Amino acid sequence: MLYANENSKGTGGLSAALALFGVSGEDLAAFEAFMDTDRDMDMSLLKDVKRIDLRGGIEYKKTDALSKAIKKELLSPVNADKMNRYVNFIYAVGGTMCWRLLNDAVNDDMAHTYFYRGFKAGHGDDCKALAFAIKVVYASLQRYGFDMPKKEDIDTCLRAAELTDRENVTGRALMLIFAIDQMQKGDERAEKALSLANKVIYDAKTCTKESRALDHSLALMAVCACIDERWIDTLVGAMKPLDSVYTNRALIGLISGLRIDSKRVYEVIEKEPAIVTPEYILNIPGKLWHKQKLAKEYTEVYVRAIKKCDEPLHAKELETALIESGAEYDKKAFDIQGKTRRRVMEEISAQYDHGSIIR
């Protein structure tokens, strides 16, 4: 029986658990031979291993069985050689989604450490880029938001994007955002970065099931504009057919939320009037200097944004920035101050049973 094979060197439970994920009998035989610690690690055993699909939902009973097997056969006690071999096998079979075959058994920091050490043993100089790629892919696909890891140096980010599976568009976009954010115009690596960006943007439309791939591709376009302003036209064209409210919220949320020089990105893309719509202004985060800048440079659009704002307190913030910016506008024609004040009072009154006591 395959799973009871005495040559498995104590990996029978792991083999059985991996079988639940769709690893074939032939590939499990390769796994058992690869995990044999009486022999040197032979990466050639993995060259014909077939990929399994680790996207989408995975039943708890599968992850639970694998987690228990990992803890029993690799971590009790920790067997560094076996763990290195295991990491390289799951990468061969799962690509940059292979974290799904380890991260449920250990915490995220330990998983990253095991991936780095395993790739050091099996992939040499690519170990840092591969470990970073998996860390970013893992973080980018978490259902309830993500705590994005700190970016690595430019070359590591670019190599990580190259090594990441085509279907992991969100992760690839983030790695390129991190790389380009560190570049200045004229960087000799810019051409390579922009070429990779073009591929990511194409794949966001054609070959991924990731729900936020398109959002991340828009953020990538915005960052690309920092080293080549022709990308602004690409961004404008991509946003035109999309829902403006959702798209602006998503784009600005990523620019402001990622660990990048967001001020630099805003300064570049806001040179293009087609970008700065009322929906764009309404989603700018709460930095007064930014609102004042937009109020000064795009006064008419800014006033329209205030009129469209259906949140009284937010409208008041926008109005304050407009007044303090020193921008010239027809106060009587727009009557912003009066309308905003009335909306704020109505909002406050609604919080009380006797709204009439509010004056």
Overview of this protein structure:
- This protein is mainly α and 359 residues long.
- The protein is 61% helix and 0% strand.
- The protein contains 19 helices and no strands.
- Residues 1-9 have low confidence and may be disordered.
Low-confidence spans: pLDDT under 50, at least 5 residues?
Answer: 1-9
- In helices, the fraction of residues equals 55-70%
Average pLDDT for all residues: 89
Structural class: mainly alpha
> What is the chains' assembly state?
single chain
Q: Gyration radius, to the nearest Å?
A: 26 Å
Largest sheet: none
Globular, elongated, flat, extended or rod-shaped: what is the shape? elongated
Order of helical and strand elements = HHHHHHHHHHHHHHHHHHH
Strand content: under 5%
Annotation field: number of helices: 19
What is the structure about, briefly put?
The chain is 61% helix and 0% strand.
What is the topology?
Elements (H helix, E strand, L loop, with lengths): L11 H9 L4 H10 L25 H14 L6 H15 L13 H16 L3 H14 L13 H10 L5 H13 L8 H17 L6 H12 L6 H9 L4 H14 L4 H8 L8 H6 L4 H10 L1 H10 L3 H14 L5 H4 L1 H14 L10
